[in-house]
């Protein structure tokens, strides 16, 4: 493999020139903040532990700052971009700046929330600077649809990073924490300053690492059934689980029966439970329904 030229990555002037040539103004609506620092994108690739045999999927490549850094290391990179202008321009940027690797790049012009297949080999890693406003749903969608993704590193708003990586009992532990943990071991993997973006956001950013569970969650309940319990438990955070799950279970008494059977106190609150405990609760609702049907 020919190594890329030292100036293949985009610097601040390159990003602004590209944006000006394309008539691109970063929009708040799409949460666009372009990375302008080559050291930062290389750090992201290192932290993501991208290997030479990895097939990486990137969501929201923008002008290509991170894409180029990924192509330096990975076997292949597939970028998913929703923006018409950015999607049209990215292949030419890759060809111009990294001609020896251009055949290892693919572009999917689509909303990542609607992507269900990708060209080429199955992705082994997801690395992305996710738009702040859709970070969690996009992340969960990609983990669900592409079980071949073993490692994920996403850059998100610092507050979102805290939520994703929060342990049970933490003040910010909630729906994103539990659902991410269904798929992976999740941890904070660093902080990113505001000055590496253009335009500079008014919030800090953080890196989150997700390593997929080597074995799927051991439960007879489906992902959908478990997530329904999670959503119900956190819809009314201040309520006990007996009260919060009443609608989900059909009544407070039915909720209490499922909780007791799962070994969870009816007086507990959602923020104290692990994903395994949510799965047990979902299983016991299943059991109740089966018993009622066979009675």
UniProtKB/TrEMBL annotation:
It holds the Pfam family RrnaAD. S-adenosyl-L-methionine binds at residues 33, 35, 60, 81, 111, 129. InterPro entries: KsgA/Erm, rRNA_Ade_diMease-like_C, rRNA_Ade_Mease_Trfase_CS, rRNA_Ade_methylase_Trfase_N, rRNA_adenine_dimethylase, SAM-dependent_MTases_sf. Its main location: cytoplasm. The keyword Disulfide bond does not apply. One of its GO terms (cellular component) is cytosol. Keywords: Cytoplasm, Methyltransferase, RNA-binding, rRNA processing, S-adenosyl-L-methionine, Transferase. PROSITE patterns: RRNA_A_DIMETH (PS01131), SAM_RNA_A_N6_MT (PS51689). Its EC number is 2.1.1.182. GO terms for molecular function: 16S rRNA (adenine(1518)-N(6)/adenine(1519)-N(6))-dimethyltransferase activity; RNA binding. This is Ribosomal RNA small subunit methyltransferase A.
